[in-house]
Amino acid sequence: MITLYAFATPNNLKVLLGLEEMGLSYALKPVNIRQGEQKTDAFKALNANGKVPVLVDSDGPDGELVLTESAAILVYLAEKTHQLLPATGVSRIRVFEQLFFHASGISPAFGNAGYFQKLAPEPVPAAIERFHGEAIRLAGLLDDLLSRQAYVAGDAITIADLVHFGWFWRSSFVGVNLADMPHLNRWYETLLARPTFQTAIAKLDGLVPKA
Ligand SMILES: N[C@@H](CCC(=O)N[C@@H](CS)C(=O)NCC(=O)O)C(=O)O
User: Disulfide-capable partner of 5 in 54, 166, 184, 204 (CB 3.0 to 4.6 Å)?
Assistant: First the structure.
């Protein structure tokens, strides 16, 4: 039995996309981060870092497995199901290249670009220039990569596409205009059209309580 603790944000969408793409059955437990539920003692017993997503697999390799970090969760699920991650060779390394590029580059730049433009209590122009500029530059690298191949790690969809998609799903929050990047836009629209992606997005949206 797989349980995913999550809320409607990019890092959580990444894991939901994986669960849907891999055809796994799972229970979804909302953790409302707008109300601070991720900072309760009960939740921090699952993740001392006080963040979602957290995956609990009662049928892990050594018994119950509690796992944090969206990219690590996707690697775990891919290896469990033998899907979306080549078993060996350069094509496998290309997936990890993109996962690390995402975790060290795209994710912090996009998160901070969105924060300083939309959420910061006061304007900090230098921070906007730095993080928004970096978000656009990194998206441009992906646009160039996708001018030569169908997916970010090669010719087949992998978990690397899922992690990048999570943040491009929030590109308007970040201020990255996909219309300016034709190859990235083609990739995004192709993924968005997949029924599994539509299901994951609908389930994620359902985690936000209706006003
Ligand atoms: N590196 C982590 C980041 C997790 C993360 O930042 N989660 C956010 C939501 S996208 C969160 O829980 N924020 C609430 C908080 O920091 O209090 C991952 O990829 O899973």
Answer: 54
